[in-house]
Amino acid sequence: AEWSTQRMRDAAVDFPVAVVLPAGGSGERMGLPTPKQFCSILNRPLISYTVQAFERLSWIGTIVVVVPKENHDLMLDIVQKFNHTKVTVVNGGSTRHRSIFNGLQVFSNITDSLMPKPKVIIIHDAVRPFVEEDLLLKITLAAKEQGASGAIRPLVSTVIATTSENFLDHSLERTKYRASEMPQGFLYDIIFQAYQQCSEFDFEFGTECLHLALQYCGTNAKLIDGPPTLWKVTYKRDLAAAEAIIKETLSMSVCIIPGAEAEVVELAKTLEINLNTMEMDVIPYAKQSYMDCLLKTRNFIHVSMSGSTSSWINEVVKTLEEADHARLYPLVIIWVQLNITKQSAESNKMDDLIGLATEVLQRNVLLYGIQIDLSKRVASE
Amino acid sequence: AEWSTQRMRDAAVDFPVAVVLPAGGSGERMGLPTPKQFCSILNRPLISYTVQAFERLSWIGTIVVVVPKENHDLMLDIVQKFNHTKVTVVNGGSTRHRSIFNGLQVFSNITDSLMPKPKVIIIHDAVRPFVEEDLLLKITLAAKEQGASGAIRPLVSTVIATTSENFLDHSLERTKYRASEMPQGFLYDIIFQAYQQCSEFDFEFGTECLHLALQYCGTNAKLIDGPPTLWKVTYKRDLAAAEAIIKETLSMSVCIIPGAEAEVVELAKTLEINLNTMEMDVIPYAKQSYMDCLLKTRNFIHVSMSGSTSSWINEVVKTLEEADHARLYPLVIIWVQLNITKQSAESNKMDDLIGLATEVLQRNVLLYGIQIDLSKRVASE
Ligand SMILES: [Mg+2]
Ligand SMILES: [Mg+2]
């Protein structure tokens, strides 16, 4: 999947793509004083996760976050605190459609903006943080080709039509209908034209962008099945669900960095083949840049025969700190030395490691050391 | 709300009510090996919470749990372990409708059962544990009156009709439609007749009981707005959400038991008026039975002037243990002594309390003591 995503990306997104992220909801439905997009999960506001989901993708340009006027400064603080670099904050309107239109105008000549007009615009919700590159690529390419595209999900409940007195009128056949979700993609010219032409009634009571593209531009959107993680964080309980997903994601990947010795390189290969429950990268221990791999996970295992370690760990920690990678969540580094001998056990290497662990702990890095005496393993083969 | 529920209950449910709880789902959608209804939250399977939501209501009779044959023994174990007293376990069929029909047949003459036929049957899902008495009463009374009733919720997403090539055909006007949820209620005779008459196609592909009552008995169900907590535990993330709700529920209520002194009775009244964030009961410190209040919460505050405590705490712990109330979650008892004097501080009462705390801790009771010297408070008024 990783390779096909890479190919799709390289082959196809050779045009500018921007994002509009309406973030105007109130906290009412959650029973919370804070609007849900600004609620914190593991010390980071929900909207920052959503922004990050887009910002990490090189083929995505500007991310326009549309917030109520009273949250403008709060959003600017978030952008600064979490080092978001692609975000433009815009004030919203009184309805969802007005807010999205405000966001789109950033790229139009009307506002005299310097932003280049994107070919494709992605519209998403601030409260759907778990959107994956794979789906964003599909949405973007379908929008480029068809003019409009949107993520869908199967209906969870039967949908029923009610009479005015709240009696059952009829139930819909579930298989013929879908829930319309986010993200949606549009040729910028199409969705901008739809908003320019739509009525006050649409602005006031409509919510569905796909509907506007159909009604005003005759564009039938291409519908693309999305994963269940597209769900909208709506209720207070959804914050707990989102936190569970984030925690699981954090613990689900590991980067193995074997030393130069043939034996540990072999061991790393074996691990890569046999450990299927975690996403795993094995990267060679060398001076060349492996930043991309390092930033994909927070869990690192360094395996070596010799046990020379301090300089390597210091280098990795420094690299990760420069990328601000340990600010939000702890990094875990496990250092494994395989051929511990009586001599090396007596050396003060473990003391060095303990000292180092104490030092990096203050920078949110959890460092563990394991020494294994391979000479005592039972001979096999 | 509590009072009106009490009135509704006393006035109206003077007829037998039973429950059918289909519990046949697999774990597929959750990405879990265990079917979700048997997944544990805080050491208790989800289905046991759902059963408990019905079992605690005096006006609810038999609860028929319909499980796949392979889960029959597991379900019997749960019934025994968690002391469920109203449950009958029945094997399910190959579809949801077949399973519900199997459940209904427990009360029919066909199976020669000894169970009395209920007037109203409530059908619910095993994976919707947070159903409240208030809604169950409304569903039951509407079913008695109209023949059928069902809980509904507003649509969270726009519902769209798709073409066969997965393009947008049209979107439904959200305000005219609702999501059909559980619980649903029926006159037993109506839903049983509907199942007896319905087709193999219905049994195989249908899911909506309200639809059967309409199609085969001409009964238009009364629809009743339910709270957001009616949602169905569907995905793995929903388990985290359910756990969060349960934890919050556990910490949201407190029972205050003042000693006999006028001063603490007054204090308890003040607390009751001013502490609005928690549900609070104040019950008089007396020998009479206050089991109902004790079992509504897990958090107790005993306030007294004198500080005589051991025998009272022992009695409460004993009462709660007899009701098996501390098995699943810890109970918290905070004992507050208000008029600590030099003399009483020097007595060994606190030592007694510490000894007692150590002892009850083994029985899952967390006991804390607070001594306050009221003589040193700043005079006010
Ligand atoms: Mg989002
Ligand atoms: Mg349930």
Q: What are the distinct ligands in this entry?
A: magnesium ion
Indicate the CATH topology of the largest domain in chain A: Spore Coat Polysaccharide Biosynthesis Protein SpsA, Chain A
Shape of chain A: elongated
Largest interface: A-B, 54 and 54 residues
Number of domains of chain A: 2
Instruction: Report the structural category of chain A.
Output: alpha/beta
What letter string, H or E per element, gives the SSE order of chain A?
HEEEHEHEHEHEEEEHHHEHEHEHEHEHHE
What's the CATH C level of the largest domain in chain A?
Alpha Beta
In total, the number of strands of chain A is 16
Q: Radius of gyration of chain A over alpha carbons? A: 25 Å
The major β-sheet of chain A equals: 7 strands, mixed
Distance between the termini of chain A: 35 Å
Report the CATH superfamily of the largest domain in chain A: Spore Coat Polysaccharide Biosynthesis Protein SpsA, Chain A
**How many helices of chain A in DSSP terms?**
14
| Biggest sheet strand line-up of chain A | 5-4-1-6-10-7-11
Oligomer: homodimer
- Low-pLDDT segments of chain A: none
Helicity level of chain A? 25-40%
CATH architecture of the largest domain in chain A: Alpha-Beta Complex
Characteristics of this structure?
homodimer; alpha/beta; Rossmann fold; 7-stranded mixed sheet; 16 strands; binds magnesium ion
Can you characterise this structure?
Two copies of one chain form a homodimer. By secondary structure, chain A is α/β, with parallel strands linked by helices. The first copy, chain A, is built from 14 helices and 16 strands. The first copy, chain A, has a seven-stranded mixed sheet, sandwiched between helices. A five-stranded parallel sheet of chain A has the order 13-12-14-15-16. The longest helix of chain A is centred in the middle third of the chain and has 15 residues. Chain A is elongated. The model of chain A has no long low-confidence stretch (mean pLDDT 84). Strand 8 of chain A pairs antiparallel with strand 10 of chain B, so a sheet runs across the interface. The structure holds magnesium ion (2 copies). One magnesium ion binds next to loops of chain B.
